[in-house]
Amino acid sequence: MTMSKTVLISGAGIAGSTAAYWLGRNGFDVTVVERARAQRSSGNPVDVKGPAVDVIEGMGVMPSVRAAASRVDRMSFVDPAGRERSRLRLSAFQGGAGAREVEITRADLAAILLEAARDFAELRWSDSISEIAQHSAGVDVTFENGAAGCYDYVIGADGLHSNVRRLAFGAESEFIGHMGMYVATLPVDRAFGDEREVVMLNLPGRAVSVHPSKGKAVAAFLFRSRAVPGFDHRDLDQHKRLVTDAFAEPIGIFAEVLDQLKAADDIYFDSVSRISLPQWFNGRVGLLGDAGSSLSLFGDGSTLAIAGAHTLAHELARTPDHPHAALSAYEQRHRRLVEPRQRGFRAARALMVPATSTGITIRNAITRFMR
């Protein structure tokens, strides 16, 4: 580039931090704006698999990622009393990078990637974009704090409920599809298995699990449901009520986990959703990660966010003066990676949250065979 191009990234999570690093490393002048006062990611476990492994190694942070990684290698399906009914070796879901792949909490991974990006980007906390106006020379942006700026590119890496997508593409309701399930997660006092074991209870159309993570166990509640009228992804009281109603019948040893959810000041709760857009960019505004192609729960969301950020940076660096060519090439390459994962949702749901007692019995029989 003869002149440094400016890029504004909305979102300091996994996708945004990875993009900031690679864009900055390729000579772009990068600013990251984040609504939160500090980085805030859940303790949910995520995977660094397949193409993301090379990206992370290229950033030089794989030693830090491995140091924070969990040691989980199996999932035990139990009854309400905690008696094992079947077991699944998680190596069955290993990707193309084999033993180089890592499981780590979302919070730890996001923190490591953000730290790597600090040398390549300006970070602005407690602020967000309020207006976007495009013209031939760039994108005029107004921030909620009243400041304004002009950028060559704006990238929305701000998640399932993306503000950038709303401003540049249209209302969320036009692009989001409920996939028939809700999920809640929260840190809990103890794990139910050893450090290598996720323990899960299934009831028809519902599941509750405890993951040992590394140092802090994480519980997840999943339940099948039609879209809830008036659902608000920010309404904590509503979220607690929905989970409590879904798990009203006795759940044995997992009752203590439900009690902790009822008392919690903060939980993650959302619809399992899919974002479907005919195009991931509009002029000089592009979408990255869950903002453009959410897999929500049962996909390789973090892996795809990392791989997509690297592809986006590569294509912008290759043709920085040609927004359509760069963003179109990014989308074309990354869609080939995303779409097969999205098609696997129904099979994953049948495995993890069978709809009926018969489905649970069949799943247990199949997983016993897979040992």
From TrEMBL:
Protein name listed in UniProt: NAD(P)-binding protein
GO molecular function: FAD binding
InterPro entries named in the record: FAD-bd, FAD/NAD-bd_sf, FAD_aromatic-hydroxylase
Any Pfam family hit: FAD_binding_3
SUPFAM superfamilies linked to this entry: FAD/NAD(P)-binding domain
UniProt cross-references to PANTHER family, sorted A to Z: MONOOXYGENASE, OXIDOREDUCTASE-RELATED
Coiled coil (residue ranges): none
FAD-binding domain mapped to chain residues: 6-336
Top-rank taxon, per record: Bacteria
